Amino acid sequence: MAGTRRVIPFAELGRQEVGSVGGKNASLGEMTAHLADAAVRVPPGFATTADAYGELLDGHGLRGRIEEQIARLHEGAALDEVGAAIRSMTLAEPLPTGLRAEIVSAYEQLGRDEGREDPEVAVRSSATAEDLPEASFAGQQETYLNVRGTARLLEAVHRCYASLYTDRAIDYRERMGFDHLQVALSVGVQIMVRSDLAGAGVIFTLDPESGFPEGIVVSAACGLPCPVHLSWPASPSARPSEADRLSSWTPPSTLTASRPAGCSSPASPTRTGNRS
């Protein structure tokens, strides 16, 4: 694959690379490039590319075997049986040698930049069809947190690739009319932050339920991936509507985030996302 980039640092990515590194990683690159002047510190990292995923599929005929399983699904085979078969085949297929070498090299460079050996990283799936206006694919692939060392990193990347075929992801693509083999997976590898000293969460730049475009919704919790407990007012009138404007809408005062009982930050790699 001469001339093909398998791994790209976030600092070199932007939203125009969605087709290569997926929506999540393209957005991380965009934030890295444009938010430094606003004192927003994006943890550094890198992304594997769609070409790297294609190399895995085409190396020893994995693509054709996936096609056979999807054909079985269309002929009436059980979804969970087909999904399990594809994930098993993907994990049995070794990561290409060149990809392994580039991931290890990029990870070692992250360590040098951070001034420590084997830094803890988040390993995050980023499908090339996610975060689209007509389809989100949110939470359908795996993410692994607190991953440390090259062996565990490579294993987490491999498992992210396999998670493109969780039962939920297969079903969603079927219902939304996406060709399974036209969707590729990028994997983002990002330095972990000390969320055990603060919190973690997600910011939506529009209301994810109503689509209201002029509000910001923040969901957060203490520590790592613990459930976010939100308490919105029960009355629909307290939520923004398409006709509302920010100048006349008062945000609910009862939005809260708390640490659930028994929640603690894990010391070992933790999986989040879809479990099927």
Would you mind describing this structure in some detail?
- The protein is an alpha+beta fold and 276 residues long.
- It is built from seven helices and eight strands.
- Helix 3 packs antiparallel against helix 4 (79-92) and helix 4 packs antiparallel against helix 6.
- The two termini are 33 Å apart.
Brief summary of the model shown:
By secondary structure, the protein is an alpha+beta fold. Helix content is 34%, strand content 16%.
Question: Biggest β-sheet: count, sense, barrel?
Answer: 6 strands, antiparallel
User: N-to-C terminal Cα separation, in Å?
Assistant: 33 Å
What is the tally of helical segments?
7
The tally of strands reads: 8
Rg, please? 20 Å
* Uncertain runs: 226-268
Pairing-aware structural class of the strands and helices?
alpha+beta
Strand content: 15-25%
From the spread of the alpha carbons, the general shape counts as: globular
